[in-house]
Amino acid sequence: MARKYKRLNYEDRKAIEAMCKQGKRAEEIAEAMDVHRATIYHELKRGGAENGNRKQYSADMAQKAI
Fold this sequence. Notes:
Largest sheet: none
Pfam families: HTH_38
InterPro entries: Homeodomain-like_sf (IPR009057), IS30-like_HTH (IPR025246)
Strand content: under 5%
Order of helices and strands: HHHH
Number of domains: 1
Radius of gyration: 11 Å
Shape: globular
Protein name: Helix-turn-helix domain-containing protein
Organism: Hominifimenecus microfluidus
């Protein structure tokens, strides 16, 4: 079954931030959030996780960027 489009909210972003700090891979986060992995990659970029350093991701920064 194909996944439906899902817009991330602040609570989702906080969950992503927590998983990033735990060292989870983007694919693992996507599976846990039931979204496509590209959604997570875009979100990580939006939240300031640069050069593959996911621990820099900030839910607050990503929320302000939208």
